[in-house]
């Protein structure tokens, strides 16, 4: 172990969600096959018993004869004749009556009377009937094998063969036995027993069977064994299908399915289609869906059949593609063999979900499909697939109409508006932390498939608790509630929003006529109903109905009296509302609202008074769970009892009580079980973070998991949503470097969602180091403690990056600042000695004036006002790390921190460089110039950036260097020549044939004004649409300001020296871009 290396016993954790998007993680199952020996056990009862059966010769014969004679002479009594009636059952012997006791004072006998046994009955003297001997069955597995072996030798010797088979592709002959072939093949059975002329022939020509296939089939019939490889599989499969030898056909199906790869799947599909192998066809369709991305990138998708690509495009499980990308893929497939595939245009395009595209994308499709004389499309052979097919044109009109009616979309749902996801998740939103009096605006998804973690979705527009939630048409509506903590409902709000799980965004809809909180919201027959509640005026009895087509709320029949803290659910087209509080008294009544008659009616009362409880529907039962009521006169108590209502009989039934009380909760039915989320426990006098689950089939409660924070007034539901995709760029390469160069006991990798291909690449260089992966949210403090426990150093590279202003400050602050703070706290609690944080050059500038810095360093004074959220949050997080230097750990040690500020990082896997290449492809391989030539920067290659992290870790492990490095930040660059961002992109893409514009698109001042206008539009549209302008003022200034820094301090303190020079770094980056270029061209149909 070198002096500057890391100790073998230490654990290293790496946090990487650089872009905070997620992909699907696939963990292969391990199968354990246990072979058990066959054991044949025969048991029988024999009437006769023969001994010495092994004797032979005369002595044996004499012994057996004497045994038989001896056995006859000992038969006492003789066997009764047949058909003799059985005697009646023998009664048990009668017990003698006890002798009377002598009177007192009588003389005792000199000796006792002898005991006399009772006389046996006549029945007991009769001989018993011996059991009849059972029939013994002998079975031999060797017999069948011996016969097959004998027949096989007969065939080889051409003995007793009565017919000769000849394949269709050769003159080779195969003498066989008719009866054997007919017994194993339905084809030969029909031929030899159905009166066909071949029944009399001695030579039969099989035109549909090859020599190899026929030989293998005959070999199997006579030996029950078959040896196959990929070169003989097709011939054998065709022969088995033709001759109907089902065991061989099934085995070939399984073998063919198991050998499917990206390279041969189209050929396997052809074989399956030709032979009508339904199982193989199904497997191919599933394989194509699971590997569609690889098929598109490699170009093999162009050879897929119409059925396979249509099945893939229709699949809800097809992930990782935008609808525009799928449209490009379908169009490329159609254009590959245009004349042949043109009729399939609508078959494919009807599976593209055009309504989920943006208006700009729909307009782009319409313009691309117009082919004019001499146009690029005509030269490249493009065909107007959409415009020439009326059905395809209608698809675009349908999408346009759908987008023009945003408030009606829940009522216009079709298969083309459905989200591309096949997984339903539990969601929790809002709530209040009573200790801090802070109301949450978080929307979180519980990802059971990823090991039970909470993922963050787009937060609500404003904090809320005690709000109403309802699902309608695949959308989530949140209505009313409170945005600040207040127990009397005085801060109730009337605003309403709709969440779109397809795009992870919110849309504001019409507000309530009356502010309300502590109320119930239901979705019923295409409308929303808000019933009761309270506000600043007190308890209310009004009920409002939301009409989607008019985007307005109207009053309907009110409740019988004011209620708040009640719960409700929907069943059979009716809304049921139970319990609650009226005039400070808890209720047990159940009311029912019929929207058709606009009338309320009473039903059977609950068995328990309760309020602030929850209610849900599971099949035909309406469950009422938890809540609280008065204990005595003026104190509250948890209601643990639970009951369900059966509408058909108007009756309540008690079920198992809750283990722990929960009031003011979220409730959702998920996979047939009822989940009760968060809330408040009056018995414990605190908010709770538990999630309890009730199983109706078992009538049992179970505590299953926790929410991230104790929250009261939280709400829950279940939805089908897109899981966020993660794309670890720096962190994955850092883990790989640690595996390759350090002898570590364990490396732990935490990411929002870890890509399976990343795990596979890391396992290839794993060695003796244990690699543990964790998927989760960096704001999950319990998970952070689990990851940090026992670790000696943390690399924190996680960050939510946003340079276009698409994310709000609260989103960026929650990940970049709050996540960093929680991670530092976990390090202190779990005694992690070293902490390295990956910051960004944007924390330094450039400032809003565009003041240049050339060859700056850590001591350079630069006045920078950070206006945009990403820069602000990265600066705040960096300061947290520097301030944590020398924090005292739980074990008395001290924490050492170090911050690295890498310049713009490029290299294999960089999504920014890839994005510029895509833009260049769409512009005819010409890169747009967005930065002036004199605005030079000095990017850093990703391999050098990861090396700097490793050397910083080594420095923190060295006691002498630790005192110097701890609490400092370092710029990280390399010898990449200083050029502008645009010229750098041109440098790595030049070998691939890309050119670049000589001048800026427009003068800088005009571009700056346009950026300002686009930011105004973004601000105006934010409540309705997430619009991210392609360029903003901060990005424009950053691209056009000279800004370079030296790595000399990192070289002095950390020992950092770049490992890869510019030529190597450029070649590695260009080679990677060249590998993905064909796939990218195909995705955009060579535009």
Question: What would you note in describing this structure?
Answer:
With 1087 residues, the protein is an alpha+beta fold. The chain has three domains: 12-23 and 726-911 and 938-977 and 1045-1072, NAD(P)-binding Rossmann-like Domain (Rossmann fold); 142-362, 2-Layer Sandwich (Potassium Channel Kv1.1, Chain A), CATH 3.30.710.10; 428-720, Kelch-type beta propeller (Neuraminidase, 6 Propeller), CATH 2.120.10.80. 31% of the residues lie in helices and 20% in strands. It has a seven-stranded parallel beta sheet, sandwiched between helices. Strand 10 and strand 11 (475-479) form a beta hairpin. The longest helix has 22 residues, at 1062-1083. Residues 1-9, 12-87, 102-117 and 371-381 have low confidence and may be disordered.
Please give a handful of descriptors for the protein shown.
alpha+beta; Potassium Channel Kv1.1, Chain A; four-stranded antiparallel sheet; Neuraminidase; Rossmann fold; 30 helices; seven-stranded parallel sheet; 1087 residues; 20% strand; 3 domains; disordered N terminus
What's the short story on this structure?
The protein has 30 helices and 50 strands. It is globular.
**Strand arrangement, major sheet:** 40-39-1-41-42-44-48
Distance between the termini: 55 Å
- Percent of residues in beta strands: 15-25%
* Quaternary state of the chains: single chain
Q: Please outline the major beta sheet.
A: 7 strands, parallel
Radius of gyration, in Å, reads 40 Å
What is the CATH H-level superfamily of the largest domain?
A: Kelch-type beta propeller
Any guess at the CATH architecture of the largest domain?
A: 6 Propeller
- Based on Cα principal axes, name the global outline: globular
Which percent range fits the helix content?
A: 25-40%
Summed up, the domain count is: 3
């Amino acid at each position: 172990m070198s002096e500057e290396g890391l100790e073998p016993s230490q654990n290293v954790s790496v946090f990487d969600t650089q872009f905070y998007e997620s992909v699907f993680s696939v963990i292969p199952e391990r199968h354990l096959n246990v072979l058990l020996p066959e054991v044949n056990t025969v048991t029988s009862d024999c009437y006769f018993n023969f001994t010495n059966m092994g004797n032979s010769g005369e002595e044996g014969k004499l012994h057996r004869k004497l045994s038989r004679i001896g056995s006859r002479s000992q038969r006492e009594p003789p066997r009764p004749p047949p058909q003799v009636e059985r005697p009646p059952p023998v009664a048990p012997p009668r017990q003698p009556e006890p002798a009377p006791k002598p009177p007192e004072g009588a003389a005792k006998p000199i000796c006792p009377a002898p005991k006399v046994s009772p006389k046996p009955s006549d029945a007991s003297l009769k001989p018993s009937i011996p059991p009849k001997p059972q029939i013994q069955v002998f079975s031999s597995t060797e017999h069948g094998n011996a016969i097959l072996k004998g027949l096989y030798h007969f065939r080889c010797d051409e003995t007793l063969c009565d017919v000769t088979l000849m394949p269709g592709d050769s003159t080779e002959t195969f003498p066989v036995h008719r009866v054997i072939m007919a017994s194993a093949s339905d084809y030969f059975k029909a031929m030899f027993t159905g009166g066909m002329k071949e029944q009399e022939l001695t030579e039969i020509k099989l035109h549909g069977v090859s020599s190899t296939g026929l030989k293998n089939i005959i070999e199997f019939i006579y030996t029950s064994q078959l040896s196959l490889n990929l070169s003989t599989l097709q011939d054998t499969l065709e022969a088995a299908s033709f001759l109907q030898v089902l065991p061989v056909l099934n085995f070939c199906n399984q073998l063919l399915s198991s050998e499917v790869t990206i390279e041969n799947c189209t050929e396997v599909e052809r074989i399956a289609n030709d032979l009508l192998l339904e199982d193989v066809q199904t497997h191919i369709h599933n394989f194509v869906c699971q590997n569609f991305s690889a098929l598109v990138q490699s170009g093999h998708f162009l050879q897929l059949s119409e059925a396979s690509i249509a099945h893939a495009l229709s699949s809800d499980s097809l992930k990782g593609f935008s609808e525009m990308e799928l449209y490009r893929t379908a169009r490329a497939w159609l254009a590959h063999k245009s004349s042949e595939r043109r009729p399939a245009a609508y078959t494919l395009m009807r599976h593209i979900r055009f309504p989920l595209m943006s208006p700009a994308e729909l307009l782009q499709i319409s313009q691309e499909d117009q082919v004019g004389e001499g146009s690029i499309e005509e030269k490249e052979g493009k065909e107007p697939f959409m415009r020439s097919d009326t059905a395809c044109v209608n698809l675009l009109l349908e999408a346009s109409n759908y987008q023009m009616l945003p408030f009606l979309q829940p009522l216009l749902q079709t298969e083309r508006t459905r989200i591309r996801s096949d997984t339903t998740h539990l969601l929790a939103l809002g709530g209040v932390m009573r200790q801090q009096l802070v109301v949450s605006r978080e929307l979180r998804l519980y990802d059971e498939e990823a090991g039970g973690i909470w993922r963050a979705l787009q937060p609500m527009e404003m904090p809320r608790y005690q709000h109403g939630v309802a699902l309608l048409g695949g959308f989530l509506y949140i209505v009313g509630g409170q945005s600040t903590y207040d127990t009397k409902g005085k801060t109730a709000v009337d605003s309403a929003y709709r969440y779109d799980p397809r795009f992870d965004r919110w849309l504001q809809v019409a507000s309530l006529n009356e502010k309300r909180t502590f109320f119930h919201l239901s979705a019923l027959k295409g409308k929303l109903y808000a019933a009761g509640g309270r506000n600043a005026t007190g308890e209310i009895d009004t009920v409002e109905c939301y009409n989607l087509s008019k985007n307005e709320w109207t009053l309907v029949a009110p409740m019988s009296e004011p209620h708040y803290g009640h719960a409700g659910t929907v069943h059979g087209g009716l809304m049921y509302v139970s319990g609650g509080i009226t005039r400070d008294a808890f209720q047990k009544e159940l009311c029912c609202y019929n929207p058709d008659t606009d009338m309320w009616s009473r039903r059977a009362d609950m068995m328990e008074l309760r309020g602030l409880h929850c209610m849900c529907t599971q099949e035909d039962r309406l469950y009422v769970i938890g809540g609280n009521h008065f204990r005595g006169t003026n104190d509250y108590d948890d209601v643990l009892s639970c009951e369900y209502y059966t509408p058909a009989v108007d009756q309540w039934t008690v079920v198992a009580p809750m283990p722990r009380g929960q009031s003011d909760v979220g409730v959702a039915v998920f996979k047939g079980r009822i989940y009760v989320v968060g809330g408040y426990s009056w018995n414990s006098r605190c908010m709770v973070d538990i999630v309890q689950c009730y199983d109706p089939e078992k009538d049992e409660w179970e505590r299953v998991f926790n929410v991230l924070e104790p929250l009261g007034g939280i709400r829950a539901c279940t939805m089908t949503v897109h899981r966020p995709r993660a794309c670890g760029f720096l962190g994955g390469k850092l883990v790989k470097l640690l595996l390759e160069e350090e002898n570590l006991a364990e490396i732990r990798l935490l990411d929002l969602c870890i890509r399976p291909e990343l795990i596979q690449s890391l396992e290839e260089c794993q060695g003796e180091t244990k690699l543990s992966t964790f998927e989760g949210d960096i704001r999950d403090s319990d998970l952070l403690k689990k990851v940090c426990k026992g670790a000696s150093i943390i690399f924190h590279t996680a960050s939510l990056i946003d340079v276009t202003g698409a994310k709000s400050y609260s989103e960026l602050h929650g990940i970049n600042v709050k996540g960093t703070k929680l991670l530092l706290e976990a390090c202190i609690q779990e005694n992690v000695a070293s902490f390295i944080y990956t910051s960004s050059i944007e924390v330094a500038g450039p400032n809003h004036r565009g003041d240049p810095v050339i060859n700056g360093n850590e001591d350079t004074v630069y006045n920078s006002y950070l206006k945009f959220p990403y820069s602000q949050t990265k600066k705040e997080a960096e300061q947290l790390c520097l301030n944590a230097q020398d924090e005292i750990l739980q074990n008395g040690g001290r924490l050492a921190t170090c911050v690295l500020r890498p310049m713009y990082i490029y290299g294999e896997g960089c999504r920014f460089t890839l994005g510029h290449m895509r833009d260049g492809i769409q512009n005819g391989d010409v890169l747009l110039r967005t930065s002036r030539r004199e605005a030079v920067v000095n990017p850093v290659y990703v391999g050098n950036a990861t090396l700097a992290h490793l050397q910083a870790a080594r420095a923190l492990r060295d006691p002498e260097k630790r005192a110097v490095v701890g609490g400092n930040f370092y710029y990280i660059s390399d010898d990449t020549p200083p050029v502008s961002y645009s010229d750098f992109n041109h440098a790595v893409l030049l070998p691939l044939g890309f050119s670049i514009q000589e001048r800026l698109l427009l003068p800088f001042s005009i571009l700056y004004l346009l950026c300002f206008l686009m930011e105004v539009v973004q601000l105006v549209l934010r409540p309705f649409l997430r619009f991210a302008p392609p360029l903003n003022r901060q990005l424009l200034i950053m691209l056009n300001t000279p800004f370079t820094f030296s790595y000399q301090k990192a070289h002095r303190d950390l020992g950092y020296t770049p490992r890869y020079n510019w030529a190597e770094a450029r070649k590695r980056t260009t080679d990677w871009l060249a590998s993905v270029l064909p796939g990218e061209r195909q995705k955009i149909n060579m535009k």
